[in-house]
Amino acid sequence: MESRQRVGLIVGVAVLIVLGLGWGVWRLGTRFAELALQSQQKAMAVAKAADSMPVKKGRLFSNDEVYTFLAAAKKAELIKDPLQRCLAYPDPPNSHWSAAAVHAYCQYRTQSVMSFADIQTLIQNGQAAELDKRMAQVLDAQMTQPAARGSLDRTFEQDFDGSFDIRPLLDAWKRDSPNSAFALAASGYAYEKMAYKARGAGYMSETPQSNVESMDRLLQLADTDLQQAVALNPHITPAYGAMIEAGGLSLGDVYLASAKKHALANNPADLSIYGYLLWQAQPKWGGSIKEMRDITAMAQAHAAENPLLMLELSKAPSYEKLKDCDCHTAEQLAEYPTIFDQVSSSKQLADAGTAAESSHHLELSVVYFSEALRFDPGLSDERMHRIYDLNNFDESQWAVDEATRMLQSAPNDTDLIKARAYSYESLNDYPHAVQDMQAALVINPGDGNELMMLGSMYANSMHDWDKAWETDNRIVKMYPNEPYGWVLRSEIQQQQPRAGLRDTIDYFAAHFDNSPQAHKLLLEMRAALALQPKSLGGASVAKSMPAG
């Protein structure tokens, strides 16, 4: 998974960091090297993005503001009741989040919805009529009760995800209840999601013809069921969302326009419908920022009726200002507090955290990751990234506790083990940090990155030169053609000090002096050698190479 690759770097990539950013970055620790690499890998059009940015309107969060925010967030996260925990959470510093929208979104994210297991039991027991009755109650609550806004939408999203495995169950529901608008809507919704999966995420020109044909066939099946569903009950909002997406996939602009017209005529204040409309209006699908803004304005006309619609305010400016922006200037980074001055969806907040982290602005990422977790505590990757961020604001014990809780359900997750090791190291608890790194190596003995982290910890944090040397021997033996082991070796020989630096320098010069960055490191090694006693500089290459 891409997000995991941010934390677990392969050996060759780690070496590029050392050679690309110099000796100092390596000494500062693996985490900062990883963050630097993230920015390099993106290779975004920074200059182009900067040209489109207006004059700065907001400002970045100060350290004091972040410390205050985290203290309140940590206190809120101790609350067991999900709704009260969400409501007690602090908003981002200097933001103007609508209390009504926050309250509505907390209710939306914590409400209970009918489980697929319950639906399956009712159908298999011949109780389709009872299922229809319960679905009607959910729809009625969605339309009449503020605490139940979006409940039918969330039920469909959670239970009818387009898996082929659920197809027989939905067909059985339709057979047992042939005039059920809910059975038809669920069937059509699932067909459309199956079509979306068949289409895939690549460009149409790269999509196999068999996939396109499968998508088209499934969309026709979806349309048949969806049209019947809304004819029977025009207020089943998930059906319109599926129709809008189907229009964007293949059924065309006329179909999409009709779906949009009927959706808004019957359900003018539904969050899910506006979400689908904003998706299809994105420039990458042939829409425009203006179209996104127009849809947002339509949604805000109904925000008093449904405060959840305020979540859509950030989508157009976020797409325009932050998408594909490797933002680094003060003006660019100040867009974050401006765009997210109002409450946004957990996904938008998580994306903001990821983008801010890639720009090395952890004062932004730790806040936005926290807000994403406020509304969706199940975001495991974002929680792991926040573990790293917490260490930069004197919350390493919190980070350790978070990692420990996550490891209870995933004890062999080496990414989590390394995150906790980093947090222990930040607490100067080197025995536990080493214990975690060794545990990670037991699970994944061939992971050179873990070896490098362990060797760096022994050398730069603990000054346990013998263990650092032993670990470096393993690195050099496993990866003789990679420079990192030799860089670590020279560091040990300089700092301990230990004999053999001259031979390490000669080997490095012969094998790795092939770039300006590597040559700079070589010059630094030679400068360090000049300061060493002559008695330490004359060991043979045979003594420097690991045995075996």
* N- to C-terminal distance: 36 Å
CATH class bucket of the domain at 2-43 and 414-544: Mainly Alpha
| Sheet having the most strands | none
What is the CATH-assigned architecture of the domain at 2-43 and 414-544?
Alpha Horseshoe
What count of helical segments does DSSP give? 33
**How much of the polypeptide forms β-strand, as a percent range?**
under 5%
Structural class by secondary-structure content: mainly alpha
In words, what does this structure look like?
The protein has helices spanning 2-5, 11-21, 23-28, 30-42, 46-52, 63-76, 82-88, 99-110, 116-124, 128-144, 151-159, 167-176, 181-199, 209-232, 237-251, 253-266, 271-280, 289-300, 315-322, 330-333, 335-339, 346-358, 362-375, 380-390, 396-409, 414-426, 430-443, 448-462, 465-478, 484-495, 501-512, 516-531, 541-544. Among the domains are: 2-43 and 414-544, Serine Threonine Protein Phosphatase 5, Tetratricopeptide repeat, CATH 1.25.40.10; 111-280, no CATH class. Helix content is 70%, strand content 0%. The protein is built from 33 helices and no strands. Helix 22 packs antiparallel against helix 23 (362-375). The two termini are 36 Å apart. The longest helix has 24 residues, at 209-232.
